[in-house]
Amino acid sequence: MALVQPLDPNHDPKTKELAEFFNETLGFCPNSVLTMQHRPAISKAFINLNKAVMANEGRVSSALKRMIAWVSSNSTGCRYCQAHAIRAAERYGAEQEQLDNIWEYRTHPAFSEAERAALDFSLAASQIPNAVDSQIKERLYQHWDEGEIVEMLGVISLFGYLNRWNDSMGTTIESGAVESGEQYLGKHGWEKGKHA
Questions:
Q1: For the whole prediction, is pTM greater than 0.85?
Q2: Which residues, in sequence order, are CB contacts of 167 under 8 Å at separation 6+?
Q3: How far apart are CA 124 and CA 149, in angstroms?
Q4: Closest Cα to residue 89, out of 121, 60, 47?
Q5: Measured between alpha carbons, how far is 54 from 155 in angstroms, rounded to an integer?
Q6: What is the dihedral of CA 70, 159, 78, 45, to 10 degrees?
Q7: What local confidence, expressed as pLDDT, does residue 14 receive?
Q8: Residue 171 three-state SS
Q9: Boundaries of each Carboxymuconolactone decarboxylase-like domain copy (predicted)?
Q10: Where in the chain is the domain with CATH 1.20.1290.10?
Q11: For a disulfide at 78, which of 7, 58, 167, 179, Cβ 3.0-4.6 Å?
Q12: Which region among 19-23, 36-40, 53-57, 137-141 has the lowest average model confidence (pLDDT)?
């Protein structure tokens, strides 16, 4: 049960514009953003941060950013964000073999050592207490430059906000995200939980 109900995508012209932006990226406007829209300054700030974090400035691909988001969300247990992140990874070009084996990224041959280092960084940075240490740093620097590491931590931090927002709100998950969650994560026990 949602703590606060999302606004209708056609609530007003600004909300309609917001919904159209997300319809392009996910195929629907997330209920999380429609809930933020109760205070438009929050949704606007979130969208601007989202655009900045997800912009491709280096070699960190759009697909890898979304897989980083999934690892972060999986670490914190937010089922809403897990489903959104895996759906976005699919829509932004993640390889089918990676989507099918995201749970085994550490050992599956579909993932490169550079991707493993990035995903392990996401896992360590998302834990409480934070588990980023000198070994994580060393592995990152073997594959990525400082700007790319900043991009990755931007994704992890953005999803830290979203994980708190959506798990606390109990945001109702959209059917498109449910389909992706069931397809790629269901075999490992993913379910909607309180986001039904």
A1: yes
A2: 76, 77, 78, 80, 81, 194
A3: 13
A4: 60
A5: 7
A6: -140
A7: 86
A8: coil
A9: 40-120
A10: 62-195
A11: 167
A12: 19-23
18: confidence class by pLDDT, cuts 50, 70, 90: confident
Q: Long-range contacts of range 34-38, CB-CB < 8 Å, 24 or more positions apart?
A: 34/6, 34/7, 34/8, 34/9, 35/2, 35/4, 35/5, 35/6, 35/7, 35/165, 35/169, 35/171, 36/165, 37/6, 37/7, 37/11, 38/4, 38/7
Q: How far apart are CA 146 and CA 4, in angstroms?
A: 39
Tens of pLDDT, residues 108-143: 999 999 999 999 999 999 999 999 999 999 999 999
- CATH code for residues 62-195: 1.20.1290.10
Cβ atoms of 16 and 182 within 8 Å: the answer is: no
Above 90 in pLDDT, residue 25?
no
Q: Where are the alpha helices (DSSP H) in the chain?
A: 13-25, 31-36, 40-54, 62-76, 79-91, 96-100, 113-126, 134-143, 146-169, 175-184
